[in-house]
Amino acid sequence: MTLFRTALVATCLTVAAMAAHADLLDDIMKAKKIRISTDFAIPPAGMMDSNMQPTGSDVETAKLLAKDWGLEIEWVPTTGATRIPNVNTGKADIIVSTLSVTPERAKVIDFSKPYAVLQSVVGAPKSAAIKDWADLKGKSVTVTRGTTQDTELSGMANEKGFKVVRYDDDATMVTAGATGQADVVATSVALVNAISSKNPAKPWEPKFVIRNFDLAIGTKQGEPRLQAKLNEWVAANLKNGKLSDIYKKYYGVALPASMTK
Question: What is the largest CA-CA distance in the chain?
Fold first, then answer.
């Protein structure tokens, strides 16, 4: 009987502990507010307009989600390096910020279904004779700290014979390219174009593709109801074309047909 009572008490304590664990989706819906971690220094995904209001493809995506769920947005400004810590420390509920799906990140956060794509490239001035990895030998390649480019290039720098230089955010990296502090960058096509826009006298271009990444909404692990609701929302807005319209507005092309079927 003693063993039975001990087991019963242990079971009750376990159930109580589970009940005490807050469900993040419930918390969001009760608060009628969702805290979204977004970088406002990575055009065209996130930026500030002339009135200093957030705009961009990720901003519009986040606003559409909040509208569909009947929620107010609390923006949590971020950089590439702080996106994941923001959700894992409870500072933000979700990440909508050009978050590429990678095996390394999947170990520490959960992802929704992909809602967009990102082409990762090596970029440099048009005058630079760079066409593949071999042409980077002896050069410094600039990345933004904490990005997929940082992770991938750091793992191959010794083998390929180049040095990785890191900046803490995309805006600083873009400025470095435009002012000549950086000669080669590894980033998105959009940010290579942003470098050219800041210094039209010295235009830049993508030199070669590193890889294509799916972009997804990030959440802390252990929130299956939130993840399921995000997946439903992404699927519905891929099907109705709204996510593709947002992407085309800012990137000039529609999402791949394979995503919208």
Answer: 85
Structure tokens, 86: 């923001």
Q: CB-based contacts of 13: which residues, under 8 Å, 6+ apart?
A: none
pLDDT at 48: 94
Domains of the chain, CATH where assigned:
2-115+216-260 (3.40.190.10), 118-213 (3.40.190.10)
Token pair listed for 51: 């009135």
Q: Which amino acid is present at 228?
A: A
Q: Give the CA angle between residues 49, 244, 55 to the nearest 5°.
A: 10
Q: φ, ψ for residue 77 (rounded to 5)? A: -55, 140
pLDDT at 18: 41
**What are 106's two structure tokens?**
């999947």
Answer positive or negative: Cα dihedral of 187, 213, 78, 249. Answer: positive
CA distance 261 to 256: 9
Across the range 226-247, mean pLDDT stands at: 97
Report the alpha-carbon distance of residue 165 to residue 145 in Å, rounded.
Answer: 9
